[in-house]
Write a structure and sequence with these properties.
The chain is 26% helix and 38% strand. The chain has 80 residues and is α+β, with helices and mostly antiparallel strands.
Length: 80
């Protein structure tokens, strides 16, 4: 479990250098990303639930028939 969390964090960090990004789910899965492994979650005002692996978060979205992840980095305002 710990190894998968570390791998997930490494992958999310690699694809989210700017603090927010959108990436096809297939790209992350090809790298070994497993969305079942996360450390905590955060729900925004729109009721979207972002799953986090330490400080890197992801939200699965469907655009057309393409599964994507919106990637974010933990921010202080998420504490509330």
């Amino acid at each position: 479990m710990d190894n998968q969390l570390k791998l997930n964090r490494k992958i999310l960090k690699q694809y989210n250098r700017a603090g927010k990004a959108t990436v096809r789910a297939s790209v992350l899965h090809k790298e070994g990303f497993n969305s079942s492994f996360f450390t905590h979650f955060w729900k925004n005002s729109k009721k979207d639930v972002y799953l986090f692996v330490y400080e890197y978060g992801f939200l699965k979205k469907e655009e057309g028939n393409v599964a994507k992840y919106v990637l974010v980095k933990w921010q202080d305002y998420m504490e509330n």
